[in-house]
Amino acid sequence: VPHGALFPTVYSGHRRFHMEPYSLQYIVVELILVKEHNGVQFTTSTLVSPAGHPHGHGHALGPSHGHTPVPGEERETWGKKIDFLLSVIGFAVDLANVWRFPYLCYKNGGGAFLVPYLFFMVIAGMPLFYMELALGQYNREGAAGVWKICPIFKGVGFTVILISLYVGFYYNVIIAWALFYLFSSFTGELPWVHCNNTWNSPNCSDLWAFNNSLNDTHKSTPAAEYFERGVLHLQDSEGIADLGLPRWQLTSCLAVVIVVLYFSLWKGVKTSGKVVWITATMPYVVLTVLLLRGVTLPGAMDGIKAYLSVDFLRLCEPQVWIDAATQICFSLGVGFGVLIAFSSYNKFSNNCYRDAIITSSINSLTSFFSGFVIFSFLGYMSHKHSVPLDKVATDGPGLVFIIYPEAIATLPGSSVWAVIFFIMLLTLGIDSAMGGMESVITGLMDEFKFLHKHRELFTLFIVVSTFLISLFCVTNGGIYVFTLLDHFAAGTSILFGVLIEAIGIAWFYGVDRFSDDIEEMIGQRPGLYWRLCWKFVSPCFLLFMVVVSFATFNPPNYGTYTFPIWANMIGWCLAISSMTMVPLYAIYKMCTLPGKFCDVSLVHISLVYISLVYISLMFNRAITEPSTRCAPYLGSSVM
User: Where are the transmembrane segments (predicted)?
Assistant: First the structure.
């Protein structure tokens, strides 16, 4: 360290010793910290003047108060606290809250499903949510930059950035579909009501006829044919090898979505923080209006009763617990780098603990509330067509682009209700897409400092790149590309990323040190519960989910269409490309160290990967053995 520079804070075990500074120079140093029970740890420290630190001392394991990503340049902050809260809520509350949680609740024992859902929410969801908010706020950088606290794990930052980019390739297409439906709703009669349109097939039937007769197995509704034949033009493609050219109608809608995203993000959180005032609040207004209309429909209460019916015997089935754990993992938005990026623009002293509790709770309550809206209309459809509820209950895009439009089409003033519904889908999708893009933009700008001066151009580059790749999803066979991306881009890879993130914070950086950072920000040290969850419960939960994801993997399909082997290989390459960022960067970091540490570390990495493969194989064998009891199932052991 040059003469007159600040001296670092020195750690021994969990005790911190400060050495008095002698000047106000700004330096960046890299320390190699050794703990007997943790092996070797790496951390990069940014040291600033005592005036910049809330306690008057340089901090050796993270940025001090007032640290900025570029020396001499003040980091942007949210205009108002509510801008940040709405952005986090808008990102976390997305289309899956409407089309997945209600169906899972109905399928897995109704109200009984809330038991494993809330259990996993408390032991894993909230702790991980809190961890990411605190991590971003303390270090004030994006998903990659925050790992200056432990550079050997920096690869996980690039993993989550890459995953967010992959998701943007196909998530924007869903918003484009919603926009296409919105434009189509401005008519006297909705185009998915009858079978007399040019896109309809001879199998189209205006009457729902759900029975087991052979003649009805190939019947389809006008709403189903409108989505698959009128919007997607699936009849003009024979599979993923026969995509065709992008359709101009969907391409135009996709371009509009990209333009909206660009002008929402180009100036940073100052602009995006204002957009979410509309996109994050509108869904709640629309859901409330739809619920008030839905409960007045015949059969609505039957649907709501089915949604809330309690069957505690279902808790003996491991799949119920797996579904609950999976929903928690994906519904909160942990692992995409978005929470880290958003919180990095907070003030240093912001109460991130309170924010984590509020926003994660609102997300779960929104999922539960949306179930009343969805099942009031599903109950109405079941009553109107005299079919069992399970014949109309579904999840995924089919719910919001087929079943729900079918229900809306039967209402008086159907065009108005359709416009309201698809505006809700648009706003749900836009702010979630904004979050994903912000994760990529912030993460890369903080890693490559020169990009800070060119945010507008870099944002344009990112959104245009996603637009060009997304064009594959708006071709005649685009739904096959969409399905492949959806299946591989953010499944096992996102679970793997969060697992490595949790291990890096809890076991390498250290829970005690992380708790010190939080106490430095908010003046309150995390309690024993949070520290235990971070160090033991959450990593074990995530390891379990990674193993389950591998062991229960099924190749993607769309209806009766099965993807060829080469398509699955492309999908796996996509998933692996993001996951390999972790070991590749770790190997690079270790191999650049002096001595023989590189050789030892490579052996350790090999042993870890072999162990994970072995556990996956054993778990796959365990869950495939038939059993009628609760206890023998590995999935039940997490209770």
Answer: 84-102, 114-135, 156-183, 248-265, 277-300, 320-342, 362-381, 416-436, 457-482, 488-511, 532-553, 565-588, 600-619
Q: Is 428 annotated as a binding residue?
A: yes
**431 in a known ligand binding site:** yes
Specify whether the CB–CB gap between 434 and 444 falls below 8 A. Answer: no
> Is 447 a domain residue?
yes
351 labelled as ligand-binding? Answer: no
List pLDDT tens digits, range 290-328. Answer: 999 999 999 999 999 999 888 889 999 988 998 999 899
Exposure string of 553-592, with b = 16+ CB inside 10 Å and e = fewer, is eeebebeebebeeebbebbeebbebbbebbbebbbebbee
As beta bridge partners, residue 11 has 16
Domain housing 602? 81-207+218-620
Query: Looking at the 3D structure of the chain, how many domains does it have?
Result: 1
In three-state form (DSSP H/G/I as H, E/B as E, the rest C), the secondary structure along 28-66 is EEEEEEEECCCEEEEEEEEECCHHHCCCCCCCCCCCCCC
Is 6 contained in some domain? no
- Tell me the pLDDT tens digit for each residue of 103-126: 899 888 888 999 999 999 999 999
Q: Is 172 annotated as a binding residue?
A: no
d(CA 490, CA 345): 25
Task: Tell the residue number behind the tokens 């003996």, with chain if given.
Answer: 316
Q: Is 360 annotated as a binding residue?
A: no
Q: Residue 237: is its pLDDT beyond 90? A: yes
Residue 11, helix vs strand vs coil: strand
For residue 31, the one-letter residue type is: L
Q: What does the longest C-alpha to C-alpha distance in the chain come to?
A: 88
